[in-house]
Amino acid sequence: MSNLSVNHLLGIKGLTEADIRLLFETAMQFKEVINRPIKKVPSLRDITIANVFFENSTRTKLSFELAEKRLSADVINFSANQSSVLKGETLVDTVNNILAMKVDVVVMRHPHPGAAQFLSERVDTCIVNAGDGTHEHPTQALLDAFSLEEHLGDLRGKRVTIVGDIRHSRVALSNIYALQLLGAEVQLCGPKSLIPKHVTSLGVSVETDLIKALKSSDAVNMLRVQHERMELSYFPSTREYAQLYGLTLDKLQTIKKELVILHPGPINRGVEITSEVADSDQAIILDQVENGVAIRMAVLYLLASKISTPAT
Fold first, then answer.
1. Bridge partners of 185?
2. What pLDDT does 309 receive?
3. Do 162 and 216 lie in a common domain?
4. Is 268 domain-assigned?
């Protein structure tokens, strides 16, 4: 079996196209597993995984935990709001205490960009980044690209538009890296205030008119406005944002074109996407959720296979 070129999953930026292809091939096998009557395999029976979340999460945390249990790993869950972090304990000390319990893999979400990289350089274990602030969310990008390939085939030459709050999104950056590695063209769309000026240096195009952006796209990934990360107001009102950048049936009928529609969740229905669109046949949002478990199984399996287990 081929191996990943990395010992941690800190971001898409550190991966190669061959890494992504290996992850997709492995995820395809695990997708077959999770659609069987018996959805469990003993692949990680001797591995212990800690889910260390310093930030609230529902879908990502549940998806990782289910992936771990489908692989028969031992799982422990850590929540910062119920821990000694509140008493002033450092990140490294917290994780080292967890590792002293003989944990093999740490899946971590943290509000600070670069936290996963910082930790990987200071503790002796495999780190999987489940989202670090506004930096990266690699498993989300992998499941998005995997889902797109299922519906569009080879992404080389396809144009994918990411719409919404690019400035505060870790999903956007990871998606840009993953899609470009797979040969897709990436276009960003949203109000200028939510698109960082430097982003064009990543080789993406920018379009502030949603209808124009949709007309030139094969797929569109609708991001929510992340109010919780905003210290300022970046647009006049939510109502105005929805009118200009919300995806509606009327707008889809205007472009007269079939698009593949993604959303990483959670959905703010009526803001970035209407219920009619989110629940339509063009939307693959629930496919993304299913594929998220398979992709995370692949990530954990391939990284854990690189861990040398001492003989007993």
1. 159
2. 45
3. yes
4. yes
Angle in degrees, 0-180, between the axes of helices 59-70 and 138-152, rounded to the nearest 10: 80
Based on the fold, state whether residues 281 and 191 are members of the same structural domain. yes
pLDDT tens-place string over residues 178-226: 999 999 999 999 999 999 988 999 999 999 999 999 999 999 999 988 6
Is 3 a domain residue?
no
pTM equals: 0.93
Enzyme catalytic residues: 59-60, 87, 109, 137
154 and 284 assigned to the same domain: yes
Within a domain: 1: no
In this structure, the strands spanning 74-79 and 105-110 are: unpaired
Question: What's the pLDDT at 83?
Answer: 54
Q: With beta carbons less than 8 A apart as the criterion, state whether 214 and 195 touch.
A: no
Tens-digit pLDDT profile for residues 95-137: 999 899 999 999 999 999 999 999 999 999 999 999 998 899 9
Asked if 173 and 145 touch (Cβ cutoff 8 Å), the reply is no
From CA 62, how far away is CA 259, in angstroms rounded?
A: 29
- At 251-272, the pLDDT tens digits run 999 998 999 999 998 899 999 9
Q: For residue 181, tell me if it sits in a domain.
A: yes
Cα–Cα distances in angstroms (integers) from residue 199 to residues 117, 133, 142, 270, in the given order: 22, 17, 20, 27
Residues 250 and 178 occupy one common structural domain: yes
* Euclidean distance between CA atoms 120 and 131, whole angstroms: 14
C-beta neighbour count of 29 within 10 angstroms: 13
Within 10 A of 213 (CB to CB), how many other CB atoms are there?
23
Per-residue pLDDT at 1 exceeds 80:
no
Residues 143 and 129 in one domain: no
Shared domain for 270 and 149, answered yes or no, is yes
> Residue 298 in 3-state DSSP?
helix
Domain count, the chain: 2
